[in-house]
Amino acid sequence: MSVIVRDDGFHAEDHEGGATIVIAPDSGLDALPAAFDGVALIAVRFPAFSDGRGFTLARHLRARGYRGRLRAVGHVIADQYAMARRSGFDEVEISDDLAARQPEDQWLARANWRAHDYRSRLKA
User: Fewest CB within 10 A of the end CB: N or C in the chain?
Assistant: First the structure.
């Protein structure tokens, strides 16, 4: 089983149909879809919390015009949630084991990710 993490906390899986594309972290940019017609969800795998290639893939997907649901799947930790959201992910899917080790309150503590953007502080 798994847990979906969003800005308002933990959720059960609620994706119901539509095309889903799963992207491995070692996918090159040429492996990303050129068109997104009918794609309801793109899931980018994170095999380890130390592997940040998925953040780059998310930025490229958004830059190419993908406006659908973008999910980080795998070993993303609560401390990385703000980075995941800033790079374009809508949500993170974690295992039940990780959710038990890093409960909902740890994720919610990072859910105000827009308020802690260093770039906005530089403009002041």
Answer: C
**Which residues touch 115 (CB under 8 Å, ≥6 apart)?**
none
13-34 confidence digits (pLDDT tens)? 999 888 999 999 888 777 777 7
Domain assignment of residue 88, given as a range: 2-122
Query: What CATH number does the domain containing 97 carry?
Result: 3.20.20.70
Separation CA 90–CA 10 (nearest Å): 13
Nearest C-alpha neighbor of 2 from the set 103, 101, 70, 98: 98
The pTM score is: 0.87
Kindly report the backbone phi and psi dihedral angles of residue 29, in degrees, each rounded to the nearest multiple of 5, phi listed first.
-60, -30
Are 49 and 75 in contact by the 8 Å Cβ rule? The answer is yes
- Which residues have CB under 8 Å from 123's CB, separation 6+? none
Q: Tell me the C-alpha distance between 84 and 9, whole Å.
A: 15
Number of domains in the chain: 1
